[in-house]
Design brief:
The protein is built from 7 helices and no strands. It is mainly α. The protein has one domain.
Length: about 220
């Protein structure tokens, strides 16, 4: 019997469901976010941060997507924690970091960023004229979440390297470091086309990594 089939037989159904929930989070965020970026009038990914999509008509879609995706990531983290507990080799850095990321994204989804840079249509160019508490909370929650994901990636890289899984270790480390650099860039230069696009790529890679992590856990490689 293959390792994947053995994992399916020995892993409780509720744990598999939790891992599937975590695996779905990434595609949900990326697909809906991409459609919004393409279909929302006046949105330009070279200028606008994805967070601005929570404003204007249809903004509730982006907010809901963030909350749901974040909570699914937390559920996935719980599933990974259970799988690791069964093997006796739990990585608290990876699990806690992933849970913090999910909670940060969900919280950021409940707090709307202020309109800026001409989006939604009718908004003056440049940064927000007035910075609201909601926008500050959005940035803080998102920032904490991003740091959680970076910690999770690096903790996973260390764990995978020790287990001899060099390919996944390198992938996790590269994504973690790239996310850190992109996050630092967006924090200091939002509105710069190169930085905006680089950070968008980092977000997509991060969600893809979470999906891969949960799929691997389903196959017994947590």
């Amino acid at each position: 019997m293959s390792q994947t089939l053995e994992a399916q037989v020995t892993t409780p159904r509720r744990v598999r469901q939790a891992l599937l929930a975590g695996a779905i989070a990434g595609p949900l965020y990326i697909i809906i976010g991409t459609l919004e970026a393409l279909l929302r009038d006046g949105f330009d990914i070279r200028i606008h941060s994805l967070s601005l999509l929570a404003n204007g008509t249809g903004g509730w879609i982006h907010s809901t997507m963030m909350v749901v995706s974040g909570l699914l990531a937390v559920i996935g983290a719980l599933g990974i924690s259970t799988v690791q507990q069964r093997t006796g080799r739990r990585s608290y850095g990876m699990i806690i970091g992933l849970a913090i990321y999910g909670l940060g994204i969900a919280a950021a989804g409940l707090l709307r960023a202020d309109p800026a840079e001409g989006f939604p249509i009718g908004t003056p160019s440049g940064p927000p004229v007035v910075v609201t508490a909601s926008s500050v909370g959005h940035l803080v929650a998102g920032g904490i979440g991003f740091l959680g994901l970076i910690v999770a990636c690096l903790a996973c890289a260390r764990r995978s390297a020790r287990a001899g899984d060099r390919v996944w270790a390198v992938c996790s480390a590269v994504i973690g470091v790239y996310y850190l650099v992109a996050f630092a860039g967006i924090a200091s230069g939002a509105g710069n086309p190169a930085i905006n696009i680089a950070f968008t790529v980092a977000v997509a890679l991060g969600w893809g990594w979470i999906t891969g992590l949960c799929v691997r856990a389903l196959g017994g490689k947590a």
